[in-house]
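User: Can you help me understand a structure? I only have the sequence.
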Amino acid sequence: MRSSKTKKLAKQKADRYFSKFIRMRDANDQGLVRCCTSGKWIHWKQSDAGHYISRRFEATRYDERNCHAQSKQENRFHNGNQLQHQKYIEERYGEGTAEKLFVKSRMKCFRKKHDYEAIAEEYYNKVKNIESKLPNL
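Assistant: Let's start by predicting it. Here is the structure, written out as tokens:
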């Protein structure tokens, strides 16, 4: 994977591969995901990677427990339906996880360009791993 020219571009690349990984991770063998808040089934390519805690909080931006496949409607027009997303997180990872994510999100986190490049590389490899196991996604 080529190095990004700027920190901004490195962050965009990290976001792109993280989002793709989340949506593919949550997909079944037919490429369908169930929206974590509405329960609707949609193809992973038509879903968003919805964050429970906003991406503006760097400490939880790439925390896999904080992000799940979500319909564009829920993520973009219903502000992520946070109450339902919280319930989903508690059911999936255990009681208290949402609170732990909230506490973690308030921690200071300063990333440099090479940090974003490492995140992009990690999620690029995770995506390739899923693609090798499920080539039809």
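Now, to help you interpret it: The first helix runs from residue 7 to 25. Residues 74 and 81 are 6 Å apart (CA to CA). Let me know which part you'd like to focus on.
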